[in-house]
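We modelled the chain as a single entity of 88 amino acids. Its sequence is:
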Amino acid sequence: MNLDTLEALDLGSEIDPGVLRAHGVVAKRGLVKILGRGELSRALTVRAHAFSQGAIRAIEAAGGRVETIPAPWGDRRPPARGNALSNR
């Protein structure tokens, strides 16, 4: 997800994957990475699984804060779905 998308949506001052999923912006099972395309004009607290360096600089320059959250399955591989077990 890019910064220009966060700027266009009025999601409040605290944004996390749950808020983005509730508004239908990201997939319900995927990880969220914030990318640096665009600009922010307001201070946001953004919680996501990953951030690009440009996104971190832009969020902090606007007076906001970034918080990296761990993946839901920990530090291992994501769980296999469907027929994926035959490919391992």
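As a brief sanity check on the tokenised model: The longest helix spans residues 53-61. The chain has a mean pLDDT of 87.
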